[in-house]
């Protein structure tokens, strides 16, 4: 009997609570998505808050993204070229860049920046409003905080994620090209030829699509934890920590799932 009570207590404290949280987040995502679409169609969307959030999210994530994207491009060029040169295939470094940076590197860097910088900012802002009882005041005035506060942040996070991914692709490609050509003294023509031969517009569209999903998921998760923050400043800190950790896990899992589905449906082809 005692062992059963221990197992039941563990289930109530951890797995069951996690499942309940996931269910509430899915319900919130459905309600928020439908509400945002209807608000845009009816001309009631808060575009001013959307623009303000886009500017804020870009300011907190652009520089860290660039700082992370450059080393990733250099590391890809260095490690791949060392292996490829051992088999005498120097001309395929550009192909490795198309796979490593465009398909995987850019979405992964974007997911890290979105979960760490943007997600924490959304959760901290909404969490501080929650503990100051601003959210309760909005409910009292019959104002939906989901549509008023979370909706613009959802659309802004999705758009900024796509822009960050494109930025990472450009910076990563430039860093890899510069390191391969000017530091490792490779041939620019072979690099570009292999890149064009292996890369395609579908690869870029895949990266942008994954980034849009990352921004959407992060806004939902961060918004949920921010609106459910309890216990003063310490509760906000715990909510931010939970939002960042869950966002990182969800985004990495989504990246693997989407990549696997894409590789199954659209196999790599050399032009």
TrEMBL record:
GO terms for cellular component: ATP-binding cassette (ABC) transporter complex. It holds the Pfam family MlaE. The keyword Transmembrane applies. The chain crosses the membrane at residues 62-84, 104-124, 154-184, 204-227, 239-262. GO terms for molecular function: phospholipid transporter activity. Keywords: Membrane, Transmembrane, Transmembrane helix. The keyword Ribonucleoprotein does not apply. This is Phospholipid/cholesterol/gamma-HCH transport system permease protein. PANTHER family: ABC TRANSPORTER PERMEASE PROTEIN-RELATED, PROTEIN TRIGALACTOSYLDIACYLGLYCEROL 1, CHLOROPLASTIC.
